[in-house]
Amino acid sequence: MIIDSVVWIALKYSRDKWHQQAVKLQEKILSAPKIFITEGILVETYNFLLRKVSAKIALETFTDLINSNEIEILSNNSVSFNGTRSILEKYSQLSYTDANLVWHADRIGITEVLSFDPGFDPVPWIQRIS
After folding, report:
1. Which of 15, 35, 43, 82 sits in a 20 to 30 Å window from 55, CA-based?
2. How many CB atoms lie within 10 A of CB 105?
3. How many CA atoms lie within 13 A of 28 on its CB side?
4. pLDDT (tens digit, 9 = 90+) per residue, 64-99?
5. How far apart are CA 127 and CA 130, in angstroms?
6. Where are the alpha helices (DSSP H) in the chain?
7. What is the DSSP letter of 39?
């Protein structure tokens, strides 16, 4: 499964409107055999926590995500940039990070995305779990 930045943020930021829902998803997250995140998800999570919570929590979260044996970070290259552009052309409501997540999900055959963002809903091969 791929987990969007809004879920990681909500888990760490108790004032987030999705915090309680994210806490309810923890069991699903912890039992997942493999979790994927993109570089963009890592960047969004870190930057948000740095601004809204603290540098300490942002760095701890970043370190936990990159050091976890259960999390694979999906990197970008010229192929993924071009693929992301094609997703943006079809689904203009998506942010770049979300379109990149959709491209990577399609490439590796993942259909489930943990997210509170309804922007994923028009993408037919993505099932948003919230």
Report:
1. 35
2. 23
3. 15
4. 999 999 999 999 999 999 999 999 999 999 999 999
5. 10
6. 5-12, 19-31, 39-52, 55-67, 78-90, 96-108
7. H
How much of the chain exceeds pLDDT 70, in percent?
A: 100
pTM reported for the whole predicted model: 0.92
Structure tokens at 37: 């995140």
User: CA dist 45 to 40, 66, 85, 86, 92, Å?
Assistant: 8, 12, 22, 24, 22
- Give the domain extent around 87: 2-129
Structural domains of the chain, count: 1
User: Which amino acid, residue 10?
Assistant: A
In this structure, are residues 111 and 14 in contact, taking their beta carbons and an 8 Å threshold?
no
Q: Which of 13, 8, 81, 17 is nearest to 51 (CA)?
A: 13
